[in-house]
Amino acid sequence: MQLTERKKLEIIVxxxxxxxxxxFLAQAGVRGWTxxxxxxxxxxxxxxRSGDFTPGQEKRLIYALVTEEVADKVLARLADFFSxxxxxxxxxxxxxMRGEKF
Length: 102
Fold this sequence. Notes:
The protein has 102 residues and is an alpha+beta fold.
Protein backbone atom coordinates (compact mmCIF):
# COMPACT_ATOMS: atom_id res chain seq x y z
CA MET A 1 0.00 0.00 0.00
CA GLN A 2 1.35 3.39 -1.04
CA LEU A 3 1.13 6.17 1.58
CA THR A 4 1.95 9.85 1.05
CA GLU A 5 3.07 12.41 3.64
CA ARG A 6 0.63 15.28 4.18
CA LYS A 7 -0.21 17.85 6.85
CA LYS A 8 -3.47 17.66 8.77
CA LEU A 9 -4.94 21.03 9.76
CA GLU A 10 -7.42 21.18 12.61
CA ILE A 11 -8.92 24.64 12.94
CA ILE A 12 -11.43 25.72 15.59
CA VAL A 13 -13.34 28.94 14.90
CA UNK A 14 -16.55 30.59 15.98
CA UNK A 15 -19.44 29.86 13.61
CA UNK A 16 -19.90 33.43 12.29
CA UNK A 17 -16.39 33.49 10.77
CA UNK A 18 -16.53 29.98 9.31
CA UNK A 19 -17.20 31.19 5.75
CA UNK A 20 -14.27 33.60 5.91
CA UNK A 21 -11.91 30.85 7.04
CA UNK A 22 -13.25 28.58 4.30
CA UNK A 23 -12.42 31.37 1.86
CA PHE A 24 -8.84 31.45 3.14
CA LEU A 25 -8.60 27.69 2.62
CA ALA A 26 -9.85 27.95 -0.95
CA GLN A 27 -7.49 30.84 -1.75
CA ALA A 28 -4.54 28.86 -0.39
CA GLY A 29 -5.33 25.92 -2.65
CA VAL A 30 -6.95 23.52 -0.19
CA ARG A 31 -8.84 21.01 -2.33
CA GLY A 32 -11.34 19.95 0.33
CA TRP A 33 -12.18 20.11 4.01
CA THR A 34 -14.73 18.89 6.52
CA UNK A 35 -16.60 21.02 9.07
CA UNK A 36 -17.94 19.55 12.29
CA UNK A 37 -19.80 21.16 15.19
CA UNK A 38 -17.88 21.48 18.43
CA UNK A 39 -20.07 20.18 21.23
CA UNK A 40 -18.08 20.83 24.40
CA UNK A 41 -14.64 21.59 25.74
CA UNK A 42 -12.53 23.46 28.19
CA UNK A 43 -9.90 26.16 27.81
CA UNK A 44 -8.65 29.48 29.15
CA UNK A 45 -12.23 30.59 29.82
CA UNK A 46 -13.17 27.36 31.58
CA UNK A 47 -15.54 24.58 30.62
CA UNK A 48 -18.17 25.14 27.93
CA ARG A 49 -21.02 23.27 26.21
CA SER A 50 -22.59 24.15 22.89
CA GLY A 51 -25.91 25.02 24.55
CA ASP A 52 -24.16 27.63 26.72
CA PHE A 53 -23.73 30.02 23.78
CA THR A 54 -25.85 32.12 21.51
CA PRO A 55 -25.71 30.83 17.91
CA GLY A 56 -23.06 33.44 17.07
CA GLN A 57 -20.69 31.97 19.64
CA GLU A 58 -20.99 28.34 18.55
CA LYS A 59 -17.70 26.78 17.51
CA ARG A 60 -16.82 24.78 14.41
CA LEU A 61 -13.97 22.35 13.79
CA ILE A 62 -12.47 22.27 10.30
CA TYR A 63 -10.32 19.35 9.13
CA ALA A 64 -8.16 19.54 6.01
CA LEU A 65 -5.38 17.37 4.58
CA VAL A 66 -2.87 19.38 2.55
CA THR A 67 0.66 19.54 1.20
CA GLU A 68 3.28 21.34 3.27
CA GLU A 69 3.27 24.24 0.79
CA VAL A 70 -0.49 24.72 1.10
CA ALA A 71 -0.29 24.38 4.90
CA ASP A 72 2.25 27.21 5.01
CA LYS A 73 -0.09 29.47 3.00
CA VAL A 74 -3.05 28.70 5.25
CA LEU A 75 -1.05 29.23 8.44
CA ALA A 76 0.32 32.57 7.24
CA ARG A 77 -3.21 33.82 6.54
CA LEU A 78 -4.65 32.47 9.79
CA ALA A 79 -1.84 34.02 11.84
CA ASP A 80 -3.06 37.46 10.71
CA PHE A 81 -6.72 36.57 11.11
CA PHE A 82 -6.33 35.20 14.63
CA SER A 83 -4.75 38.44 15.81
CA UNK A 84 -8.31 39.84 15.62
CA UNK A 85 -10.52 36.75 16.10
CA UNK A 86 -10.39 33.80 18.51
CA UNK A 87 -9.36 30.46 17.10
CA UNK A 88 -7.07 27.48 17.45
CA UNK A 89 -4.98 25.71 14.82
CA UNK A 90 -3.19 22.38 15.18
CA UNK A 91 -0.93 20.92 12.50
CA UNK A 92 0.24 17.35 12.43
CA UNK A 93 2.12 15.08 10.05
CA UNK A 94 -0.01 12.29 8.64
CA UNK A 95 0.22 9.61 5.98
CA UNK A 96 -2.67 9.25 3.56
CA MET A 97 -3.75 6.87 0.88
CA ARG A 98 -4.40 8.46 -2.52
CA GLY A 99 -2.13 11.40 -1.77
CA GLU A 100 -2.87 12.97 -5.16
CA LYS A 101 -6.31 13.91 -3.80
CA PHE A 102 -4.74 16.24 -1.26
